[in-house]
Specification:
This protein is of the alpha+beta class. The protein contains 11 helices and 16 strands. Strand 14 (348-353) and strand 15 form a beta hairpin. The termini are far apart.
């Protein structure tokens, strides 16, 4: 079992014997000395291999080793002439050699969002998982999911693991991915709502984080064929209660990620948006939103959904996330609670992100009862 990682070696003093397992991500030769950059999941460190310190065959191997080979390095912790941590190797061993090269280099400084590279990166995604930017994205996601689950755990929510294959689609057959299992037509889940609605009558507070699938060819910030869904159900709560729950989650996760993701964001060359830290968020009604849009030159009628353009326009009015409440029944055909004061609208609220990013993935919330869901 590996005991020391690169991040650990950066903290220990010079002269200490070490053993490091990792991958050769770069190499250079200068006279009788070979330099390896050896990386692992926590960083990289320079390894100095001198011809005078290794047997002839080991030195020859070190000189010819392909990039991305898995190695074990034994040596002593040292410091370069520039003051950088390094390892003076006394022995090196190849654990897994490489027989194929990839261009661009998987761990190179490439733009992983370059449209011209995306087909190649997706085709070879198992290799480009090693890229520091891809790693940073996945580590950020892991951090985000950890804090979301922690919030639910701290607030007495029970995780319900629902099946991915379901006999009933949430929306309609046209938007669901159907497959045949033992001569029976079933669907990849679009949402675990039905399972949570059943579970909430037992556990009162339930949630699920899992994959959802849509049978539409789409790839945008609003729609994907496969994405992960965060959904919760609460008994004995009204719309204001649920709004406060969502605001609490967003604020908590924003603060926690602000503390834990600095290195990941630095690798990605960006910073964390902390607009969601301060609560409560402003609220406007759907009708007020329509009036604001029409005054700003965007023509939209009552009963039409707010698209990306409309959300971006509205987000310029507020300094952070904001709620749009009272969504019309024509937009929300599901059995949500009808507003008793205006039967044209529902007790539904959308949380819109700041800076034009649109509908929050956590922000579609609604109020309903077991009786209203069949009568509205």
């Amino acid at each position: 079992m590996k005991e020391k990682f690169v991040k650990d070696l950066l903290q220990i003093g010079c002269g200490i014997k070490i053993v490091l397992s990792g991958w050769v991500c770069a190499k250079r030769k200068q006279g009788k000395i070979i330099f390896w950059d050896v990386c692992d999941s926590t960083g990289k460190i320079q390894v100095v291999i001198s011809e005078d310190c290794l047997p002839i065959d080991k030195f020859a191997m070190a000189k010819k080793i392909p990039i991305e080979s898995g190695v074990v390095v034994k040596g002593r912790r040292s410091r370069s002439s520039r003051g950088q941590p390094e390892i003076l190797a006394t022995d090196v061993e190849i654990v897994g050699g490489v027989t194929k090269s990839f261009c661009p280099h998987p761990r190179g400084n490439i733009d992983i969002f370059d449209e011209t590279l995306i087909p190649h990166l997706l085709k070879n995604r198992h290799i480009y998982l090693r890229n520091p930017k891809v790693m940073a994205i996945l580590q950020f996601r892991d951090c985000l999911m950890h804090h979301i689950r922690q919030w639910f755990y701290d607030h007495q929510f029970t995780a319900i693991e629902a099946p991915i294959l379901t006999p009933v689609p949430l929306y309609d057959d046209g938007s669901a991915m159907a497959i045949n299992v033992h001569d029976e037509k079933v669907f990849l889940t679009q949402c675990v709502g039905y399972y949570l609605e059943a579970s909430v009558h037992a556990f009162e507070r339930v949630y699920n984080i899992g994959p959802s699938f849509r049978g539409e060819e789409s790839r945008s910030k609003r729609h994907l064929m496969e994405y992960w869904h965060i959904k919760a159900e609460v008994a004995w709560a009204n719309l204001d209660d649920i709004i406060e729950i969502v605001e609490s989650i967003v604020s908590y996760v924003s603060r926690k990620c602000q503390n834990d993701t600095e290195k990941m964001l630095s690798i990605l060359g960006t910073s964390l948006c902390v607009d969601g830290v301060v609560t409560p968020f402003p609220r406007i009604s759907y009708c007020e939103a329509i009036k604001l849009l029409n005054r700003s030159g965007v023509t939209i009628e009552f009963g039409k959904g707010l698209g990306s353009e409309e959300e971006a326009k509205l987000s310029k009015v507020f300094q952070g996330p904001f709620w749009v409440t009272g969504i019309p029944r024509t937009i929300e055909p599901f059995p949500y609670v009808i507003d008793p004061d205006d039967t044209k609208i529902t007790r539904v609220a959308d949380l819109i992100a700041s800076n034009g990013y649109g509908l929050y993935i956590l922000g579609k919330i609604y109020s309903k009862t077991i009786f209203d869901e069949y009568n509205s």
